[in-house]
Amino acid sequence: MEWWQSVILGIVEGVTEFLPISSTGHLTLVESLMGLPINDPSVTAYTAIIQIGAMAASIVYFWGDIVRIAGAWFAGVADEAKRGSDYALGWAIIVGFGVTAVVALALKDLIEGPLRSLWFVVAGLILWSGVMFLADRVGKQERGEESITWVDGAKLGLIQCLSLVPGVSRSGATISGALLLGIDRVTATRMSFFLGIPTLVAAGGFQAVTSASDIATGVGWTAAAIGTVVSFVVAYVSIAWLLKFVATNDFTAFVIYRVIVGTVIAGLLVAGVMQPV
Predict the structure, then answer these.
(1) Is the whole model's pTM more than 0.90, yes or no?
(2) Which of 24, 65, 79, 161 has the highest CB neighbour count under 10 A?
(3) Structural domain boundaries of the chain?
(4) Are 204 and 51 in contact (CB under 8 A)?
Protein backbone atom coordinates (compact mmCIF):
# COMPACT_ATOMS: atom_id res chain seq x y z
CA MET A 1 0.00 0.00 0.00
CA GLU A 2 1.32 3.45 -0.95
CA TRP A 3 1.54 6.16 1.70
CA TRP A 4 -1.05 8.33 -0.07
CA GLN A 5 -3.51 5.44 -0.12
CA SER A 6 -3.08 5.08 3.62
CA VAL A 7 -3.68 8.81 4.12
CA ILE A 8 -6.91 8.65 2.11
CA LEU A 9 -8.12 5.58 3.99
CA GLY A 10 -7.24 7.24 7.31
CA ILE A 11 -9.35 10.24 6.35
CA VAL A 12 -12.25 7.99 5.30
CA GLU A 13 -12.03 6.11 8.61
CA GLY A 14 -11.86 9.29 10.67
CA VAL A 15 -14.84 10.87 8.94
CA THR A 16 -17.09 7.81 8.82
CA GLU A 17 -16.33 5.86 12.03
CA PHE A 18 -18.76 7.77 14.21
CA LEU A 19 -21.25 8.97 11.61
CA PRO A 20 -24.09 6.46 11.06
CA ILE A 21 -23.01 5.75 7.46
CA SER A 22 -20.71 2.71 7.94
CA SER A 23 -16.96 3.18 8.12
CA THR A 24 -16.30 -0.43 7.08
CA GLY A 25 -18.60 -0.04 4.09
CA HIS A 26 -16.85 3.14 2.97
CA LEU A 27 -13.38 1.70 3.56
CA THR A 28 -14.30 -1.41 1.58
CA LEU A 29 -15.60 0.77 -1.27
CA VAL A 30 -12.54 3.03 -1.36
CA GLU A 31 -10.17 0.06 -1.11
CA SER A 32 -11.96 -1.53 -4.05
CA LEU A 33 -11.74 1.68 -6.10
CA MET A 34 -8.01 1.79 -5.36
CA GLY A 35 -7.63 -1.72 -6.72
CA LEU A 36 -6.78 -3.26 -3.35
CA PRO A 37 -7.92 -6.87 -2.78
CA ILE A 38 -10.66 -6.26 -0.17
CA ASN A 39 -10.78 -9.89 0.96
CA ASP A 40 -7.00 -10.11 1.43
CA PRO A 41 -6.14 -10.84 5.11
CA SER A 42 -3.72 -7.90 5.36
CA VAL A 43 -6.27 -5.44 3.96
CA THR A 44 -8.94 -6.77 6.31
CA ALA A 45 -6.56 -6.42 9.26
CA TYR A 46 -5.54 -2.92 8.15
CA THR A 47 -9.19 -1.84 8.10
CA ALA A 48 -9.60 -2.94 11.72
CA ILE A 49 -6.27 -1.58 12.96
CA ILE A 50 -6.70 2.00 11.76
CA GLN A 51 -9.94 2.12 13.77
CA ILE A 52 -7.70 2.33 16.83
CA GLY A 53 -6.83 5.88 15.79
CA ALA A 54 -10.47 6.89 15.73
CA MET A 55 -11.07 5.17 19.06
CA ALA A 56 -8.07 6.95 20.57
CA ALA A 57 -9.65 10.23 19.49
CA SER A 58 -12.89 9.29 21.26
CA ILE A 59 -10.96 8.35 24.40
CA VAL A 60 -9.26 11.75 24.44
CA TYR A 61 -12.54 13.56 23.72
CA PHE A 62 -14.52 11.69 26.39
CA TRP A 63 -11.70 11.30 28.92
CA GLY A 64 -13.59 13.19 31.63
CA ASP A 65 -16.65 10.95 31.19
CA ILE A 66 -14.51 7.80 31.14
CA VAL A 67 -12.80 8.73 34.41
CA ARG A 68 -16.14 9.62 36.02
CA ILE A 69 -17.90 6.41 34.96
CA ALA A 70 -14.93 4.17 35.80
CA GLY A 71 -14.52 5.83 39.19
CA ALA A 72 -18.21 5.40 39.96
CA TRP A 73 -18.12 1.75 38.89
CA PHE A 74 -15.15 0.88 41.09
CA ALA A 75 -16.65 2.82 43.99
CA GLY A 76 -19.95 0.97 43.56
CA VAL A 77 -18.25 -2.40 43.47
CA ALA A 78 -16.48 -1.58 46.74
CA ASP A 79 -19.44 0.04 48.49
CA GLU A 80 -23.11 -0.71 47.72
CA ALA A 81 -24.14 2.66 49.16
CA LYS A 82 -22.26 4.44 46.36
CA ARG A 83 -24.11 2.74 43.49
CA GLY A 84 -25.70 5.47 41.40
CA SER A 85 -26.51 6.07 37.73
CA ASP A 86 -22.85 6.19 36.66
CA TYR A 87 -22.27 2.82 38.33
CA ALA A 88 -25.18 1.37 36.33
CA LEU A 89 -23.86 3.01 33.16
CA GLY A 90 -20.50 1.36 33.78
CA TRP A 91 -22.16 -2.05 33.93
CA ALA A 92 -24.13 -1.28 30.76
CA ILE A 93 -20.90 -0.60 28.87
CA ILE A 94 -19.17 -3.71 30.26
CA VAL A 95 -22.09 -6.01 29.47
CA GLY A 96 -22.64 -4.50 26.02
CA PHE A 97 -18.99 -4.92 25.12
CA GLY A 98 -18.99 -8.50 26.41
CA VAL A 99 -21.99 -9.49 24.31
CA THR A 100 -20.50 -7.98 21.15
CA ALA A 101 -17.08 -9.54 21.78
CA VAL A 102 -18.50 -13.05 22.15
CA VAL A 103 -20.51 -12.83 18.93
CA ALA A 104 -17.67 -11.19 16.97
CA LEU A 105 -15.20 -13.91 17.97
CA ALA A 106 -17.70 -16.63 17.07
CA LEU A 107 -18.27 -15.11 13.62
CA LYS A 108 -14.67 -14.03 12.93
CA ASP A 109 -14.21 -16.19 9.81
CA LEU A 110 -17.52 -15.06 8.33
CA ILE A 111 -16.75 -11.39 8.98
CA GLU A 112 -13.35 -11.55 7.31
CA GLY A 113 -14.55 -13.69 4.41
CA PRO A 114 -17.96 -13.70 2.66
CA LEU A 115 -19.23 -10.54 4.39
CA ARG A 116 -16.48 -8.49 2.72
CA SER A 117 -18.48 -8.54 -0.54
CA LEU A 118 -19.65 -5.14 -1.76
CA TRP A 119 -23.13 -6.63 -2.19
CA PHE A 120 -23.33 -6.92 1.60
CA VAL A 121 -22.26 -3.27 1.80
CA VAL A 122 -25.12 -2.33 -0.54
CA ALA A 123 -27.65 -4.36 1.45
CA GLY A 124 -26.43 -2.98 4.77
CA LEU A 125 -26.49 0.64 3.63
CA ILE A 126 -29.95 0.54 2.08
CA LEU A 127 -31.83 -1.85 4.37
CA TRP A 128 -30.58 -0.42 7.65
CA SER A 129 -31.48 3.06 6.44
CA GLY A 130 -35.10 2.00 6.84
CA VAL A 131 -34.47 1.04 10.46
CA MET A 132 -32.74 4.38 11.13
CA PHE A 133 -35.63 6.29 9.54
CA LEU A 134 -38.15 4.37 11.66
CA ALA A 135 -36.20 4.69 14.90
CA ASP A 136 -35.81 8.43 14.42
CA ARG A 137 -39.58 8.83 14.21
CA VAL A 138 -41.09 6.28 16.58
CA GLY A 139 -38.49 6.51 19.35
CA LYS A 140 -40.05 8.33 22.31
CA GLN A 141 -36.72 9.88 23.40
CA GLU A 142 -37.90 10.16 27.00
CA ARG A 143 -34.86 8.61 28.69
CA GLY A 144 -31.58 10.27 29.58
CA GLU A 145 -28.18 8.90 30.57
CA GLU A 146 -29.23 8.44 34.20
CA SER A 147 -31.81 5.80 33.15
CA ILE A 148 -29.37 3.42 31.40
CA THR A 149 -29.13 -0.07 32.95
CA TRP A 150 -27.11 -3.21 32.27
CA VAL A 151 -30.17 -4.63 30.49
CA ASP A 152 -29.99 -1.71 28.03
CA GLY A 153 -26.28 -2.46 27.63
CA ALA A 154 -26.99 -6.11 26.79
CA LYS A 155 -29.63 -5.14 24.23
CA LEU A 156 -27.36 -2.55 22.62
CA GLY A 157 -24.48 -5.03 22.60
CA LEU A 158 -26.63 -7.45 20.62
CA ILE A 159 -27.76 -4.70 18.26
CA GLN A 160 -24.14 -3.61 17.82
CA CYS A 161 -23.43 -7.12 16.50
CA LEU A 162 -25.52 -6.29 13.43
CA SER A 163 -22.80 -3.85 12.40
CA LEU A 164 -20.56 -6.85 11.71
CA VAL A 165 -22.32 -6.74 8.34
CA PRO A 166 -20.46 -4.04 6.35
CA GLY A 167 -22.78 -1.18 5.46
CA VAL A 168 -24.99 -1.39 8.54
CA SER A 169 -22.73 0.94 10.58
CA ARG A 170 -21.83 0.34 14.21
CA SER A 171 -22.95 3.81 15.28
CA GLY A 172 -26.05 3.56 13.07
CA ALA A 173 -26.99 0.29 14.72
CA THR A 174 -26.41 1.36 18.33
CA ILE A 175 -27.98 4.81 17.93
CA SER A 176 -31.07 3.35 16.24
CA GLY A 177 -31.32 0.67 18.90
CA ALA A 178 -31.07 3.22 21.69
CA LEU A 179 -33.74 5.40 20.08
CA LEU A 180 -36.08 2.40 19.87
CA LEU A 181 -35.45 1.82 23.59
CA GLY A 182 -36.81 5.32 24.24
CA ILE A 183 -33.43 6.96 24.83
CA ASP A 184 -33.01 10.55 23.64
CA ARG A 185 -30.86 11.29 20.57
CA VAL A 186 -27.88 12.91 22.32
CA THR A 187 -27.70 10.15 24.96
CA ALA A 188 -28.06 7.51 22.22
CA THR A 189 -25.11 9.04 20.37
CA ARG A 190 -22.99 9.20 23.52
CA MET A 191 -23.82 5.56 24.30
CA SER A 192 -22.66 4.64 20.81
CA PHE A 193 -19.28 6.18 21.64
CA PHE A 194 -19.06 4.54 25.06
CA LEU A 195 -19.81 1.09 23.63
CA GLY A 196 -17.56 1.66 20.63
CA ILE A 197 -14.42 2.54 22.59
CA PRO A 198 -13.77 -0.90 24.16
CA THR A 199 -15.25 -2.77 21.19
CA LEU A 200 -13.11 -1.25 18.45
CA VAL A 201 -9.94 -0.92 20.52
CA ALA A 202 -10.23 -4.64 21.31
CA ALA A 203 -10.93 -5.46 17.65
CA GLY A 204 -7.98 -3.42 16.43
CA GLY A 205 -5.66 -4.80 19.09
CA PHE A 206 -6.75 -8.35 18.34
CA GLN A 207 -6.03 -7.85 14.64
CA ALA A 208 -2.66 -6.26 15.37
CA VAL A 209 -1.62 -9.32 17.39
CA THR A 210 -3.15 -12.11 15.33
CA SER A 211 -2.49 -10.61 11.89
CA ALA A 212 0.96 -9.11 12.49
CA SER A 213 2.58 -11.29 9.84
CA ASP A 214 -0.17 -10.49 7.30
CA ILE A 215 0.34 -6.76 7.84
CA ALA A 216 4.12 -7.05 7.61
CA THR A 217 4.06 -9.00 4.33
CA GLY A 218 1.00 -7.20 2.91
CA VAL A 219 0.07 -3.55 3.31
CA GLY A 220 3.02 -2.89 5.66
CA TRP A 221 3.22 -1.48 9.19
CA THR A 222 4.22 1.98 7.91
CA ALA A 223 0.93 2.23 6.03
CA ALA A 224 -0.97 0.99 9.09
CA ALA A 225 0.73 3.60 11.30
CA ILE A 226 0.01 6.44 8.86
CA GLY A 227 -3.65 5.45 8.55
CA THR A 228 -4.03 5.23 12.33
CA VAL A 229 -2.53 8.68 12.98
CA VAL A 230 -4.59 10.33 10.23
CA SER A 231 -7.79 8.69 11.45
CA PHE A 232 -7.10 10.00 14.98
CA VAL A 233 -6.85 13.62 13.86
CA VAL A 234 -9.85 13.51 11.53
CA ALA A 235 -12.01 11.52 13.96
CA TYR A 236 -11.53 14.06 16.77
CA VAL A 237 -13.00 16.78 14.58
CA SER A 238 -15.82 14.47 13.46
CA ILE A 239 -16.81 13.68 17.05
CA ALA A 240 -17.18 17.34 17.98
CA TRP A 241 -19.23 18.01 14.83
CA LEU A 242 -21.56 15.01 15.31
CA LEU A 243 -22.43 15.80 18.93
CA LYS A 244 -23.25 19.37 17.96
CA PHE A 245 -25.29 18.18 14.97
CA VAL A 246 -27.49 15.67 16.84
CA ALA A 247 -28.38 18.24 19.47
CA THR A 248 -30.59 20.04 16.94
CA ASN A 249 -31.07 17.64 13.99
CA ASP A 250 -32.46 14.19 13.24
CA PHE A 251 -30.73 11.57 11.05
CA THR A 252 -32.69 12.12 7.82
CA ALA A 253 -29.67 13.51 5.96
CA PHE A 254 -27.65 10.40 6.84
CA VAL A 255 -30.50 8.11 5.73
CA ILE A 256 -30.71 9.83 2.34
CA TYR A 257 -26.92 9.71 1.92
CA ARG A 258 -26.80 5.99 2.75
CA VAL A 259 -29.50 5.14 0.21
CA ILE A 260 -27.78 7.19 -2.50
CA VAL A 261 -24.36 5.60 -1.87
CA GLY A 262 -25.85 2.10 -1.72
CA THR A 263 -27.73 2.65 -4.97
CA VAL A 264 -24.63 4.01 -6.74
CA ILE A 265 -22.52 1.03 -5.62
CA ALA A 266 -25.21 -1.39 -6.78
CA GLY A 267 -25.32 0.32 -10.16
CA LEU A 268 -21.54 0.10 -10.56
CA LEU A 269 -21.60 -3.60 -9.63
CA VAL A 270 -24.39 -4.40 -12.06
CA ALA A 271 -22.61 -2.47 -14.83
CA GLY A 272 -19.42 -4.42 -14.16
CA VAL A 273 -17.44 -1.27 -13.39
CA MET A 274 -16.65 -2.71 -9.94
CA GLN A 275 -16.29 -6.27 -8.72
CA PRO A 276 -17.99 -7.40 -5.49
CA VAL A 277 -14.73 -8.81 -4.00
Answers:
(1) no
(2) 24
(3) 3-271
(4) yes
